[in-house]
Every structure is written in structure tokens, then in C-alpha cells.
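=== Given protein ===
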Amino acid sequence: MNIPERSLPGDLNALKDVFLIDVLPAWGTNLIRRVISKPKVFLQDSTMAASLVGVDAESLEMQISSSFTGGLLESFVATELLKQREWSAVPFNLFHFRDSTGKVVDLVMESRSREVVGVEVKAAVSLQGKDFSGLRHLQKLAGNKFSCGILLYAGKESLPMGPGLWAMPISTLWSV
């Protein structure tokens, strides 16, 4: 499909206006660079996204760590955080992070005082140390503004994974 580049912003705005997609700007320590970095676009409705890629509930369970599952889960978590932002005691903006070296953090929450919480989403029941590499990188970049890094996963336990880093079940999104 060839969409003229000049029409893409209007098309994205139309999809956003009817609540089909959300657009997350890039996070960075330099505010000017944030504006020119590419945003991340995702469908707000995870069920619709799953249907569009031909994935049903049974195949999601069978292929818990497939690339489709990971993307769907990340979109689901982003949508949930955007909902929770409306009633959060600490107002925050939601971003994504990717640098030129390939370091990635799925979601970055930043408060008005520029405190940062990094959130990684993994569609897996077990974790490896390398799963925290993006969060560790964000921790270095944000310095003393880094509150914590959280890796949400399909497991059942909350685990400390180093200074300021935690692995937590996805169900934590709805825990008080």
C-alpha cells in the first residue's frame, strides 16, 4: 500500500480522533529531540488488533512468547496506562524510548517534575537478565530523575531485579 507521506499526518489524526489509534511521542532527555523523533502508533483495541493479524484467544495461549503476542500485550498495557493516567494521583505523560544504538524501553512515564518510570512488557513467564538492558540504559540516561523500572510479564511473582528495577505480573496494573 502506497500512502503519500504528506497525507499520513492527516490520516493518523483522523484515526486518533475516532479513538482507533494512539500515538506515543518519543522520550528523550533533550526536549527538542523528542519533537523530531518518530512516534509509536498502536491500535487502542487489542482485540481488533489481534483479529487483524489473525490471532485468537487459543493461539495467544499456545504461543505466549510470539512476536504478535508481545506487540498485542504492549499495546494493551499502553492503553491501560493511558486510561489510568486520567485518575492517577501523580499526573504523567506516556512516551516510548528507542535510541540510535537500538536500546528500547516500551513505555516511559514522566511526571511534570520530570521523574521517570520505565515500563517493559514481556509476553513470557520467565525472565532473563538481558530483558532489563533497556531499563538499565534508561536508568543511566535519566540519572537521579529515574524513579524505577518495571518489567511486566506473564509470571505470577514480583521480584527485585537490582537497584530500582522490578519484575511484576501484568495483573499488577489493577492492584492497589
The longest helix spans residues 67-85. Helices lie at 8-17, 31-36, 46-52, 57-62, 67-85, 133-142. The chain is about 35% helix and 25% strand.
